[in-house]
Amino acid sequence: MPVVAITPDYKFPARDRVENYDGNQLVYVGWDHHLMFCAAFTYLIAPTATFAELRDGMLPKGFSLHPEYSKINWDSATWLLDGEPFTPQLDKSLQEQGIGHKSLLRFQTPELKGYQNAGV
Amino acid sequence: MAAKKLNLKDKYRLLTRDLDWDYDYADRKKAFPYEDFEGIKITDWSKWEDPFRLTMDSYWKYQAEKEKKLYAIFDAFAQNNGHLNVTDARYVNALKIFLTGVSPLEYQAYQGYAHVGRQFSGAGARIACQLQSIDELRHVQTQIHAMSHYNKFFDGLQDWTHMHDRVWYLSVTKSFFDDARSAGPFEFLIAISFSFEYVLTNLLFVPFMSGAAHNGDMATCTFGFSAQSDEARHMTLGLEIIKFLLEQHEDNVPIVQKWIDKWFWRGTRLLSIVAMMMDYMLPNKVMSWKEAWEVYFEDAGGALFKDLARYGIRMPKFVETTAKEKEHISHQTWWIFYNYGHAAAFHTWIPSEEELDWLSEKYPDTFDKYYRPRWELAREMEERGERFYTQELPQLCTTCQIPMAFTEMDDPTMISYRASDYEGEKYHFCSDGCKHIFDQEPEKFSQSWLPVNQIYQGNCGGPGVEDVLRDYYKINLGHDNMDFNGSPDEQRWNAWKGTEKDAKNKDAKDKDKDVA
Question: Predicted ipTM?
Fold first, then answer.
């Protein structure tokens, strides 16, 4: 349903379009059932970066504060990309595997239940 | 023969009816260009009745009396170092949020009512909006004066207008009003006069003012009393407006309902900051957020919507979600600020043992299960000397602009993720309510100025987060931000009250002489 506006043609380019990020894009990454971190994180990353560069190069800074981070077994972790099951390929670029601008990646570590097994 | 003296009723009639005139030199539609485009149909403006029938002379006289009393108390408060009588220095952080987040909204309300007060072709509505506009200006001024005393003694109050325009969490309150003011005049009235002033204001105003009263803050409390009669008038006006619109034409009903749905949800998101204030920031608690929601929305609002049912108005959409959210929202919001305490211009802290028990008692179904563990983790880390601050910027909701921290209400360890695609772009939301609002007006909300995304676009200075905080937000790092524990605010407070071992701290001495 369109906005009701006094201006006849109320139309503007999206404020967060990918062109505004100087060759990079935004990717959101969240760790399900680990609410020590109140929300998913926002990363500025080149679409040509590999999944390994994101996972092993960028995620540790924020996520490693969690006492369970060092226990993550990436082989058994599962992923969702924009809500759909997803199997990342470490050596392929983000854009090659459909991780686009403002995509949301979520990972699950079923054997880790969070601090006090409380999803924290 | 002397002219007959007019009584108030006659004066009001002359002001709001006879002062209006028809234009023989211009098209009336061109004189009031904003009146039609929203689709609202007004058949007879003369049916508008302001229940207070205020005229200018009575208004000035009445307000001047209140000002005199108010400023006498401010003076006494300042001369007697009234800030030393608050329960604890932690309390002042609630004032920091109020001054940076809420007072600028009073100013926005002043601007908003001045604008719509020009745009209605009915003189009665124009006068009512004009008076409310002046009220709102008075409120922002008296709030500044009430809190200026605290600015001499506490950090974080010095640059509130600048911060309101820029700081990430203040974009939540700013964008709320920007949204209302950039809408048409009738939507503005439903948004602010009805949904906000009438339905939800008791959940903003009453908690802050009774919080002040319970915590020894005479200045803020007195401001509250002084504004109370204005607020009562605004609430009555909010009700008058909605009844007027609904009675004017049946075609107005679905439009008004759509606005109620939107602004009720926007309002509940805005109030999450009040929820955390009540449950976490007041050293002496008034009542829990859950209790406040039950009394002021579920009971009072329930009766209101029953009354409006005869016009064909139903309860706002997603009201059933709020019945579940009242158990969670304050805990999840304070956790956001605890996570990002290094990036806020006020202090955060872990609740004391006593406070944790109070929360368990007030939230028997949720606190111990979902939220106490968060605080136990935080405390464990703090005791190791590792008070944690989240290192990456959060994902934000496109509509309310709050970090995406709210959970599924039926699965409170799972973040509630919602998304929409619009013209090839992805947009993310914290709730069905925020997604619904976006989907109704994607052209508008695809313009959201999301602080995190703006930082990454390079529009907020940088390159580092610390540069943004210091140079773009003007947060005085090491003073305004970080944990209350160990803050200059805490050290000064202890020095003044002679309560703590490190009362002789050097930092505390700086401002010490100001109060001696």
Answer: 0.98
